[in-house]
Amino acid sequence: MSFAFGVTLFALGILVSVSLHEAGHMLTAKAFGMKVTRYFVGFGPTLWSFKRGETEYGIKGIPLGGFCKIVGMTPQDDDVEPGDEKRAMWRYPVWKRTIVMSAGSVTHFGLAIFATWLAAMTFGLPNPDFPRNEEQIRAEPAVIAIQKCVLPDTTWRECVAGDAPSPAAAGQLRDGDRITSINGTPINNYGELLTTLRATAPGSTATIGYERDGQPGTTETMLATTKRPPIDDPKGPVTEVSALGVGLVVSTPGLVSHGPVPAVGATSDFLGDMAVATAKAMQRLPEKVPALWHAITGGERDMDTPISVVGASVLGGEAVANDAWELFVMLFISLNFFIGVFNLLPLLPLDGGHIAIAWFERARSWVYARLRRPDPGRVDYFKLMPFTYVVILIGGVFTLLTITADVVNPITLFPR
Fold first, then answer.
1. Would you say 316 and 331 are in contact if contact means Cβ atoms under 8 Å apart?
2. In 116-204, beta strands by DSSP E
3. Is 83 left (phi over 0), alpha (psi -120 to 50) or beta?
4. Which of 105, 149, 247, 401 meets the CB 3.0–4.6 Å disulfide criterion with 159?
5. Would you call 22 a catalytic residue per the annotation?
6. What is the torsional sign of CA 7, 13, 15, 18?
7. What are the TM regions of this chain, as residue ranges (predicted)?
8. Are strands 149-150 and 36-52 parallel, antiparallel or unpaired?
């Protein structure tokens, strides 16, 4: 039930975000005097609507987004009624059209900023000092968490009858102990713990030095046997090695909370890092198509492949089911930030495409004026339709791939 609730709640959050996106277009257009005839949440058949002034508001049957209709977005639109010619959107100054077309993305950015600021003051934002790669993890002090068992191979699963019990637990080690030596070999960090274990014969009895509450101690235990790849090559050949049955307790907190004022700076830093990561992710999108196809056809799903709103909603459901509300909020922030950036790409039919054309027209008119040549006028959108269809086709195929991958081979952050 909690999983279904989380999926529904996240999907509702997406719907609200997209509805506010369209509301941003509508409100700025109305503020400048443009005519907005319709604002609807959803697509398909109309379930309910009412008209106030010159605008019809309502809800449609398919809750997959929303739209608003601004009269005369392009010179080729034939929806301008007699007497409304001056209110056609394309006749307004380029800066006003830019504000209207960018208002949707600005709304997403606003949601991301506000949600990040709230997160910074409550459960916290990711700590930049938290170890996030193998090198940083291995440099951490060897403070341990006792595992229930030692899994016999590299496949993660819950412990079952027949699995080797944790040698650390058998040796009376406890969560929070710091391993200081194995068979007399000093252990200064987690990397040295792994390296020393790999150099110790599986099934042998080892003398473990440790520190607990500032007091040193030693214990003996028989090491278990498991199968693992080389430490420096996770995809390398799997061999039998020793195991102590422990995990790493990272001393650095993963999340850091802030007061209202410091949260502003933390929000700026966090979203700045997200902007860089988003730019890099968008550059890698083409190379992710084969990885998505590989996942669809039965291969292992790469955690770095894109996800659709379906996949994001499933992850939101997992987060709620595992009481990881901070992850739920981070997904909401990331999705809004990505949608905001994506919509500003200078490609039709995206908002950024309309903005790019408006400024192209302005720049071209300026150049022609300096050359004392007649203004070439507005861009003919009909001539751009083949390019628009190509963008729609590519976007549709990519969306279909991500949705299919999210259904048949979804990314999961928690064991099921």
1. yes
2. 125-126, 144-146, 149-150, 164-165, 178-182, 185-186
3. left
4. 149
5. yes
6. negative
7. 99-123, 387-408
8. unpaired
Q: Express each pLDDT in 145-186 by its tens digit.
A: 999 888 887 777 788 888 889 999 999 999 999 999 999 999
Total residues belonging to the chain: 416
Tokens of 400: 């279909």
Give the active site residue among 22, 192, 318, 361: 22
313's tokens: 């909603």
Question: What per-residue string of b and e applies to 317-344 under the rule 16 or more CB within 10 Å gives b?
Answer: bbbbbbebebbbbbbbbebbbbbbbbbb
Nearest to 256 by CA among 124, 70, 161: 124
Cα gap 385→365, rounded to integer Å: 22
SS3 259: coil
The encoded tokens of residue 272 equal 């700045």
Q: What Cα–Cα distance (Å) separates residue 61 from each residue in 8, 40, 43, 119, 281? A: 16, 10, 6, 33, 34
DSSP 195-212: HHHHTSPTT-EEEEEEEE
N-term to C-term CA, the chain: 15
Percent of the chain with pLDDT over 70: 100
What digits encode the pLDDT tens for the residues 14-54? 999 999 999 999 999 999 999 999 999 988 899 999 999 99
Rounded to two decimals, what is the model's pTM? 0.83
Identify whether the C-beta of residue 220 lies closer than 8 Å to the C-beta of residue 206: yes
Which phi and psi (to 5°) does residue 329 adopt? -65, -40
Residue 40 β-bridge partners: 58, 67
